[in-house]
Write a structure and sequence with these properties.
The protein is α/β, with parallel strands linked by helices. Helix content is about 25%, strand content about 15%. A hairpin with a 4-residue loop joins strand 11 (about 265) and strand 12 (about 270). It is globular.
Length: about 325
Amino acid sequence: MKFIDLFCGIGGFRIAFEELGGECVFSADIDKYACKTYNDNFGDFPLIDLTKVDESEIPNFDILCAGFPCQPFSIGGLRKGFEDTRGTLFFDIERILRLKKPKGFILENVKGLVNHEKGKTLEIILNKLGSKINGITNSEKHKDCLNYNVFYKIINSKSFGVPQNRERIYIIGFQDDINFEFPSSNESKFLTDIIDKSKEHNTIIPILNQNIDFHLEKHKNVGTIKDLEYLLAYEVRKSRCTFRFDNLSPTLTAKMGTGGNNIPVLVNQKRRLTVEECLQIQGFPKGFKIKSDYHQSYKQIGNSVSVPVVRALAKEISKFI
């Protein structure tokens, strides 16, 4: 089973498909820092601008994997969609699929893609990809439709043993007319399973502590809150501070790479989550190599897929390819 890893980041897709015996024959990303991490773990340095790659030069493959850039569709961005040049990267996926005609593909994006432009953006994507959508004949397919049998679903990482509330849309396609079913899971994992309790030193600036304390005092159950060893605060500022009480992390984002208010704070330990903890919150395996205490590492992790989710999807896909 040969696959290509587009917009590969630090290799979340590659981990899952290589575990199944898959062979990565091509990978590409334009973030040189992510490429360094990718190379440290897989021995490939995939620094390539995909828009400048001739699709005929890509080796033949069975599955296309792509967590294509989500900024044009995210509620955290300007949401310009296909008006944004990054949004057109979907069309690079399309031209590769059109020429290489692989047996299948798996795409990942933010949940915001579903309602972007009142659903028009997702509609464009699906009409380009699929003659059947979730088992139903697509009467609205584009005249240049790739005629894949396409399935899509929003999946929350927290249901797959990831201690994070992270909703993402997965779009999966097959050449064959098969009945694909998305895997389900009720596996639970929580912050208390991964937090390093030995790290009790203060690693956040005093103003963040002050802002957290300010909001704690405003809460009716201050004593109860302070007793929760896994209490996380994020978006910490004087005007706003969000707490999470369910022993899960909020969605980790690329904005963590900018530091400041964007890295979740463990209230009781008065410190931010470490790079290593964020890796575990995304379900990366032990031994994964990444630079500690580094803003680019936080960015890379926030941009990644949750490995256990992709692992479950890859297992189902491999049944048909």
